[in-house]
Amino acid sequence: MLETGTVLSLPDSADDAWSPFWLLPEGPHDVFSLVTPADIRRIRDHAQENFIKLIDKVFDRLLILKATKDLAKNPLNTRQLLNCVRILTRLVPFIYEAGSDGTVMEDIVFWTQRPRPGSGADYTLGRQIVSATVDLLFTSGFTVPPATVGEDAAVRYTIWENGIGQTSSLGSSKEHVANRIEVLRLLLVICSKTMYVPAAGSVTLPNRALHAIAYNSNKRMVLCLLCSLINTSLRDRVQGWAIPYRSSTAMDPNDELSLHAMQALFILLDYQTPPSKAGSEPDSSADQLDDTEADSNTPSMVLVTGTSTGAQNLFRVFIAKLHRTQEFDYLHTNIMRLLDESMRANLSILASVTKQPTKHAMPQEAAILLWVLLENNAPFKDYLVDHNSSLRLFSVLLYFMLNGYNDPAQAGLVRTISHILHYLSEDSRFATRLMQPFDQSILPSTMRTVDASLTHADFMINTVFTLLSASKPYLVPVYSNLLLLVRNVSPYLTQVSQTTADKLVSLFDIISSPAFIISESYHVRWLIYLIEVFDYVVHYRAVDNPRLMYSMVKARSYFTRLRSFNLDKARAELSQLREKKSMADSARTIGRSSMPREISQNTDDSAAKAAESLSSLSLNDGASADAPSLEANVISEGGDASEPTKSTDGTASPALSERARGKRPAANYAADKEQQPQQQQQQIQPRSSVSEAQPERSRSKGKERAGAEPKRKTKTASSSAGPKQFQPSEEWVFSWLPDLPLDPIIAVLDALATQVDRIAEEVHRDAQAAAAAAAAAANANSMQTLGGDSKTDSQQPPQSPTKQSTDTAIAAVTSDPTQTIIHWLSSDAMLQVLPDLEESMPEIRPRVQGLSPALVVWFRSLLWSIIYAAGMKPFGIWKNTNVRLFVVKHSV
């Protein structure tokens, strides 16, 4: 390293300067410890010609060794080949970090033609190194078993493990496993240019190395690599009767191989060619896909590639073509196994005692794989929805949300699960299945509830309430998905429990309070989603949810308060609350003063805590910004990845149909341009401000679903208030308030309130009459008792009836009308008093999960942050490099 950095131009023939790089290192630790970042940057910046020659010479040596026959029989050649792989793994990140967007040095080293050392023929290193790295994953005697008799190929495209596309394993040795790990590291490094691009450019700038693999025309290579990565990721390493305990922090090689395989699989499936600019030809290394089935199997999350040839990511194409039941069984069984293992690891005694997992758990990776499969393969979604264990999967996912919502490092997992559940909730079959009874035995005792009659929908709503009441700033992007989950399931809700009903109404009280609405622009979306929940219940499921209807009747003032919304009063309330908060450390509750006494009595203490916590998100001046919606990950140099900064929910603006607006006159209001939340910067710092207004996909035909959301023309905050504080206007209020479907809800609640009051009076009157009769009977019995006693003891004076016996008789007669009211609300008699709702009947139509560039950037940054964090051990592959996609937090 010293000679290559001091001599400006070493000749190609200076073998004494080049050969030590592949001759001397004894292992990967030697390479990463001896070749320091300072040395690499010195050569790159001050002796660039030597830097390029070093890469060329190492790669040329790699090609020579790769083509060697009987590689497995020559340990020296194998060690030199591994050293070449290690040196390239060490150097490539410093190519990408050079320049503002990582393209200048990359273009010079990888994509500029120059003579190949030794031969003199022009070649492009980028294409060659990508092709050679993939070939190394299937090199006979190196990463796959040696060729059998009659086979003479050095590269054998075959599937590593049994599973999809393969019924038997190759019988790989531990050397093959170790070599695959090193080559997969190199593959990840070569494709890691995205890490060195600013977040806003990660969807617009191409990753040519990833493009060369994903858009490769060699279908056999793509299929073998895809199936090998999937099967290796999901390989079941049965421990038998052994206790799954790791006595050291070192990862098992098989676990490490599975982790790297899953990471490579993710980035290959995630990559999309950015749309090409007008008049420019995209750089494409793939031929046009000539498969007649490609169009019908295009994944649902595919962005327009913008390529003139119409080429597609073959990894996505082949994933979309999976259709056999045994393939889906394999995927579902092993994803569930990974989640179950992670859950057992969290709950194991060894983990609690040693403070470390008993084995390498991958819940985040399993959740990401599940989401990718669901989004890219519609038949797999149908399979999962119809599967008998779909409810168990649902429960396990909710467990991980409850287990991780208090940990910022698990916020990525929580958000990924929220997207999965939202996506599944779009299917009416899945939503209907949630009405089945919930078995709490799957949960640890700390998460179980007293009510044993809950359905899965009850458990879901209680989980949503728990997460929202936590009011974690890093969970704000999750809240919209959770409310959309409840909204999509609401047309199918039946027999909601009293606890669930009270929590849902209490949540509406918080979100519909005037001060909370105007504190952030995106709070209106949350309000709309909850309004739609009650709108669906009122129109379709009133008689099936008597407890929820009763809670709504008691809380009907919340709905009338919303209809008479006044911006000036809301501003005054918000200002007063913020002033109180600035004078005291404790947060004040928004909108609780108007809560009816009946609800406050029936709702448990967690509702009040939720109001206080959730409202605190909006009471801090400057707590949110106008619109940075992109999330930037923060990675600690210790190796833990935390959740990116919050962004919007990723759903499109809903629009109300005239039918859903009832008898209200149609009106066009100018709207505010919606602004997105920005989280308080404690540990997480944003990198960009890409808007995450996601287009809403539609999978159904017919009328438009009732719902309202502000049209996007909001005025920006005034300069006096500062750029980080949302300033609502009358124009903004009129963009959403008149379109809320409040009239039919209030009409139903008013009609029911009259009957509920009548029933309550009747029950009270009957209770009084029964109590009087009971008291009279008690008095008579007392007199008879006294008369009998006087005959036996004439000397004892007569005693009057005691007041205690009368009170006991009255107390025996209940005056609580709740059960009578609930019984009436679940009867046909209730339907007869409802007003005509035909004109306001909303169409049952889910709010579907849209895709925006900002959601793509968040997901991409999440993937690469996980890869970066995993690479911190044992070598720190990307450590001390200038990563731009997310923020790296250096430990003190």
Automatic annotation (TrEMBL):
Region Disordered, residue ranges: 275-299, 578-613, 636-728, 782-807
Compositional bias ranges of the Basic and acidic residues kind: 694-711
GO CC entries: Golgi medial cisterna; Golgi trans cisterna; membrane
Composition skew (Polar residues), residue ranges: 716-728
Compositionally skewed regions (Low complexity) per UniProt: 676-686, 793-807
InterPro entries reported in the protein's UniProt record: Hid-1/Ecm30
Full protein name: Uncharacterized protein
The species this protein was found in: Coemansia erecta
